[in-house]
Amino acid sequence: MEIITIISIAILIMSAVVHEFAHGYAAYRLGDPTAQYEGRLTLNPIPHLDLFGSIILPVLLVLSGSPFVLGWAKPVPYNPYNLRNRRWGELIVAAAGPASNIIIALIAGIIFQLAPISQSIAEFLYVVVFINVLLCVFNLIPVPPLDGSKILFGLFPRAIKVRTFLEKYQFVIFLAALFLVWGIIGPIVRTITGIITGISF
After folding, report:
1. What pLDDT digit, counting tens, does each position of 151-160 carry?
2. What pLDDT does 193 receive?
């Protein structure tokens, strides 16, 4: 396994950890201490690791020659009934994860474009931008259990039938989204990465 692949998996894991921490922190600021009580309000990756999503899937994608590396950490638990903002609380908590990834991508992109850095660091930063944009865009797909579905339900709380349908068939729909993800969001991810880094393909 090449060094860049190992680095990519490490970046993916840490980016997913920040993503989940952001969910827990947003819930905590809104009044729910569940993540803190369960030891998940931390950037230590160990409590967040998911055997399949954090290790098995990324390695399988690499070994299969996939054009992208994708994975996730264990979802941070929270109790929506503890949130002070009952109307927008769940939406804010859901949006915090993708927002954290795009913030990481922007910071890495600014350093990539403006700082005097070596070629190896530039390659590292590009991977950071790409993976975080991928995580952000992927999680915004409006399919349970992804964050996009919670944002959708938060914006349209009366769309009960849509929510019921998506939750009823979420496993099948999620698997379809997982296997079709690159064909669906690949061009979007490449475009956003190009805008942030100034490199277009």
Report:
1. 988 888 777 7
2. 96
Count up the domains in the chain and report the number: 1
Q: Tokens at residue 41, please?
A: 């309000």
As given in the structure block, the two tokens for residue 87 are 């109307």
Rounded to whole angstroms, how far apart are CA atoms 163 and 155? 12
Give me the active site residues, please: 20
pLDDT tens column, 83-104: 998 889 999 999 999 999 999 9
Pairwise CA distance, residues 106 & 62, whole Å: 26
User: Domain range for residue 36?
Assistant: 3-197
Q: How far apart are CA 150 and CA 109, in angstroms?
A: 28
Q: 65's torsion region: left (phi>0), alpha (psi -120 to 50) or beta?
A: left
Tell me what the mean pLDDT of segment 25-37 comes to. 95
Place of tokens 């999680």: 139
Query: Do 105 and 129 form a contact (C-beta atoms < 8 A)?
Result: yes
Backbone angles phi, psi at 141, to 5 degrees: -65, 125
CB atoms within 10 A of CB 52: 11
Q: Which helix (H) or strand (E) holds 107?
A: helix 89-114
The whole-number pLDDT of residue 58 equals: 82
Q: How far is CA 111 from CA 118, 128, 155, 178, 190, in A?
A: 11, 11, 34, 31, 19
